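Contributing new records

If you add data, match the layout below exactly. Sequence lines come first and carry their own label; structure lines follow with theirs. Keep one chain per record. Anything else will be rejected by the validation script.
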Amino acid sequence: MSSPLELQVAPVAAPRRDERWQRAARRARLLAWASLVWMTLEGLAGLVAGIEANSISVLTWAASSAVEGLASAIVIWRFTGHRRLSETSERRAQRWVAASFFLLAPYLLYEAVHRLAAGTEAEAAPLAIALTASSVVLMPLLGWAKLRLGRQLDSGATSGEGIQNLMCAGQALAALVALAGAGAGLAFLDPLAALVIGGIAVKEGAELWRGEDSCCATGCCQ
């Protein structure tokens, strides 16, 4: 009869490193590279668009591109060279990706509260609308692909990167709603959207740090 400790340890055994696993690892690294390039371009353009639109949601969405780019760089590191087969590298990468979720939380909180108190309105600038709309379309495709690969690879780092992509899409959608709402006299939607995304980031980061499977990582929110 197995002891309770053995029952806890058994489910986390490393996946078999067969050719199918190796192909999935290469796809995870390729998607991470694609994300890193896109996030760099998106972040720079998003900062310009956010300033033009005077929108905290657009600015924080653009700033979060740097955090997503960091997560992508961590996944690239994880699946490069000898680290591809290393469980130690996976645990380290998972912790690093988890930590990246917390980077924007204080900024989101401060700026959102400041905008709520000041009552500053966003403007529906064309560049901001175009950029956030592209993110709403593209980021879910990347996110779901990385979540599938994360489950196949048993890689919390890859799943965490995918969750950040989905958060990026959610934040972009919130920014679009906020821009439209600001034009209709509902400027409070802008900082509230930033607060909601910040709360999600803290929750997902904490679960990934503890090694827990969030709803998105296990696929129950599909």
